[in-house]
Amino acid sequence: MTEKRHLKIAPSILTSDFTRLGETIDMLNSSQCDYIHLDVMDGVFVPNISFGFPVIRNIAKRAAKPLDVHLMIVDPDRYIGVLRDAEPEYVTVHYEACTHLHRSLQNIRANGMKAGVVLNPHTPVSGLEYIAEYCDMIVLMSVNPGFGGQSFIESTYRKISETKEMLQRLGSKALIEVDGGVNLTNAGALRDAGADVVVTGNAVFASEDPVATVELFKSL
Ligand code: DX5
Ligand code: ZN
Questions:
Q1: With helix as H, strand as E and coil as C, how does 126-162 read?
Q2: Mind listing the pLDDT tens digit for each residue in 94-137?
Q3: Please, which pLDDT band fits residue 2 given cuts at 50, 70 and 90?
Q4: By three-state DSSP, how is residue 213 classified?
């Protein structure tokens, strides 16, 4: 029997209580999560504004887990240098928000961070064909970005398989992350379809015991 592959878990703090941010980071530090997922929104690329780089720098000082920064902003190149101070492990930018995606990814790597591309639900995987070799992570949005707590879009399973097939064909070791509407019911199937990392916002923060919920995700 082949050994079960464990998912990496990246809780998103988007729907957490921002008046208790320090406690939230301490709680995640004490959990079995693999990354802390930070959703940066500019009110232009997505219809919502979340938090920005001064907040991320403060989170970085308190976080014992690696940061996974998801930039839902137009022209993200403007902020890559600023992000460097927070030393995130991953910085991911949207395919739809970068005119010169190759340049953006190189910019992230040149600043010592791992680079990823995020695809909105309507964006085909084939767009990654010529850029995958510059990616350390591919993020598949399984909701339309902008808000936590939305329903999972089912076509994501097919998209994971297509992404996996393409990465294998190209010899890429990029991780596949799924972001949006992930819960304890669909996470196992996402892993089986080929996901390496899942982002979990509401499923963790609306639960009675977030630390125990992360543990349940890890035990899948
Ligand atoms: C959506 C964000 C997600 C989201 C995850 O724009 O990128 O990270 O907040 O939260 P849930 O799990 O609640 O969909
Ligand atoms: Zn996200």
A1: HHHCCCHHHCCEEEEECCCCCCCCCCCCCCHHHHHHH
A2: 999 999 999 999 999 999 999 999 999 999 999 999 999 999 99
A3: low
A4: helix
User: How does pLDDT run across 30-89, given as a tens digit for each residue?
Assistant: 999 999 999 999 999 999 999 999 999 999 999 999 999 999 999 999 999 999 999 999
Q: Is 94 helix (H, G, I), strand (E, B) or coil?
A: strand
This prediction's pTM: 0.97
Query: Which residues are placed with Cβ below 5 angstroms of ligand 2, an ion?
Result: 39, 70, 179
- Contact by Cβ (8 Å): 9, 200: yes
Q: How far apart are CA 64 and CA 176, in angstroms?
A: 23
Separation CA 135–CA 129 (nearest Å): 11
The reply to whether 39 belongs to the active site is yes
Q: Which of 7, 13, 14 to mutate to test the pocket of ligand 1 (most atoms within 8 A of CB)?
A: 14
Q: 143-157: buried (b, 16+ CB within 10 Å) or exposed (e) per residue?
A: bebbbbeeebbeebb
Nearest to 21 by CA among 13, 32, 10: 13
**How far is it, in rounded angstroms, from Cα 175 to Cα 190?**
13
